[in-house]
What we know:
The protein is an all-alpha fold. 69% of the residues lie in helices and 0% in strands. It contains nine helices and no strands.
Amino acid sequence: LGIIGAASVAVYLYGYRTPFYHSSPLDSLLHPVAVLRFVVTYFRFSGDPTMPEGNLWPTFAESITLIAIVWVLTGAVRCFVLRRPGFSRLESFCYANQLFIFSSATITALGRLRFGAGQATSSRYQGLALLFWACTAILILLRAARAENSKALIACEALLVVLLLAQPLRFAAVEAFARNRQVNSAKAYSALVRNTNDREAIQQIFPNE
C-alpha cells in the first residue's frame, strides 16, 4: 500500500504547477510565523468560533491550542523516534493519527497562506481537527488513568465534560452564519430574477460582479 500511495503521489505531482491564486509552498516556508498561526487557527476553531485577529500575541484559545500541539508532538517524538517504553498500542495509534493530521494542516497552510489565517476556519477542515482533539482527549485520559490518581482522572473527565458542554456556543455561531447566508442568498436570487440591478445583494453570491 505504501508503494502504491507513493506512486500515486508521484504521478499527481509530475509536472505540477501551483495555481496563480494559491501560495507557493516554498515561498510560504519563508513565513514560519504566518504558517504557525494558520495551523493553530486550523485546530483552535474547533472550540473557538471567532475569526483570527491580527494581534501579535496569541489569544487564550490560541495559547491552549499551541500548548496542546507541542504536547502531542513531544509525545509522538518520545513514542516513535526515541522509542521510549510504556506506550500502548492505543497511544501509538492516537499519535500516528495526530501526526498525519498535523502534517495535513501544515501542508494546507503552505498552499493557502495567501488567503490568510481566516481560510483555516473553513468547515471542511473541522473533520480532521475534531479527530485531533478526540485523540488528545484519549491520551489525556490514558495518562491520568496510568497515574493511578483518581482525583486527577476525575478532574480530566470533568474538564472534558465542560469542553463538550461549551460546544453549543460554537454551533450557535455556525447556525447564525448559515441563517445569514441563507437570507443573503435569497436577496441575491430575488435581485437576479426581478432584474432590479441590486449589485450589493448580487455580490453576496458573486463577489466579483
